[in-house]
Amino acid sequence: MSEVRHDHDRVYEGKPVPGRARRGRIHPVVVIVVLVVTICGVFVGVRVFSGSGEPPVTVVRALLASKREFFEDAEVKRLLLAKGFRVEVTPAGSFDIVRSEDIDSYHFVFPSGQSAADLIRDRRARRHAVPFRPFFSPIVLGTFREYADALVKAGAATKQNDLYYTLELDKLVDLMDHGKTWSDYQVDNRNRLLAQIPDPCRTYSGSIYVALLSFAKHSGKTPVDEAEALGWASEIKPLFDAEGQHGEDLSPKYLAPEGRSFAPVVVIYEHQFIAHQVRTHDRTGRPDAERVLLYPSAQHETAPELISFTPEGDQIGRLLMEDPGLRRRAVELGFHVLGVGEDVQSPEFSSMLTGRGLPVPRNGVGDTETWLPKPALFEKMITAIAGCR
């Protein structure tokens, strides 16, 4: 039986990479591209030189799951470019990364959780695979205030403050098993009381929600053999089937202006909600009072790892661990950063929220923890529930 929340092993030890100051844009006057190729012909690095005498820019290719939002941020791009790097992002679900046939053509990958990272490191056995853990983000449920208040009326949630609630998943599972609807609790929605989840065959968050339901439904136990795993999967499958189609990332639908109609309760990462609230506050001076978060009382800390395959990937990993500007921006994008040279959460996340007058959640990390089934049994459960191919 493997525990969802892992002790943060020391996965990074190194010295800061000297940054190279760079201003302005790349001038397309003269461009020389230098390809560095291994004996096996695998792409390793590209350096682009401008004709203006400015320092070269190293183009780094990355295969990223939900943490790609960090690298797609304009300020992160600017900070990395100032250090001489441009990251080209290829989006993929965490388990798509595990199964990728061309994974070796990337400088680094960034799956969203520990089990996916373990599988990737197994694939890279005895080859360059350096892990970095710069930040993490718990799995949560995003919803709207009237739906959270309905769960309070149903006895499945308690209110922390204006933006956050604590969710008792065992009570939620009981409500779902009994076919309760939102209208049973004075919400103008006759649909069944369910949460929408990303595709568990492709995404870490979707698979972990299955584990959370199973853990809650069976009083904190995990299956001991294949027969029990498949039996428990058959109990959860009707809830999965009732939700209909499952995409890769539900946060865009939830955060859209019409999100209440398309995605009233969704499984997302905490950083996606926090980043939205920070943007809203910085733009309007107040938070989005309609959207709130549900924190499962039995928590799961995702412990994502950036796994570098090349020296260029190592440099990106070190920058994320050590560069003050990148660490500050990670917090503004909703992530909990880990202490430099330490395996503990740093206080920047709480300070960033309180500095804006936003409440700090009691997210439950470190209290009650959810345990995952053994990897082989968990894979069989996910396949039985979602029909993975």
Provide an overview of this structure.
By secondary structure, the chain is of the alpha+beta class. The chain has 2 domains: 171 residues, 3-Layer(aba) Sandwich (D-Maltodextrin-Binding Protein, domain 2); 184 residues, D-Maltodextrin-Binding Protein, domain 2 (3-Layer(aba) Sandwich), CATH 3.40.190. It has 15 helices and 18 strands. The strands form 5 sheets. Strands 2, 3, 4, 5, 6, 7 and 15 form a 7-stranded mixed β-sheet that branches. It has a 5-stranded mixed β-sheet with strand order 10-11-13-9-12. Helix 2 runs antiparallel to helix 13, helix 6 crosses helix 7 and helix 8 runs parallel beside helix 15. The protein is globular, with a radius of gyration of 22 Å. The N terminus is likely disordered.
Query: N-to-C terminal Cα separation, in Å?
Result: 25 Å
Quantity of strands, as a count: 18
At the third CATH level, what is the topology name of the largest domain? D-Maltodextrin-Binding Protein, domain 2
**In the residues, how many domains can be counted?**
2
Share of residues in helices: 25-40%
Low-confidence stretches: 1-44
User: What's the gyration radius in Å?
Assistant: 22 Å
Biggest pleated sheet: 7 strands, mixed
Strand share of the residues? Answer: 15-25%
* Overall morphology: globular
Average pLDDT: 85
CATH classification, class level of the largest domain:
Alpha Beta
Specify the structural class.
alpha+beta
Helix count from the secondary structure assignment: 15
Give me the CATH architecture of the largest domain, please.
Answer: 3-Layer(aba) Sandwich
Keywords: Membrane, Transmembrane, Transmembrane helix
Protein name: Extracellular solute-binding protein
Organism: Amycolatopsis xylanica
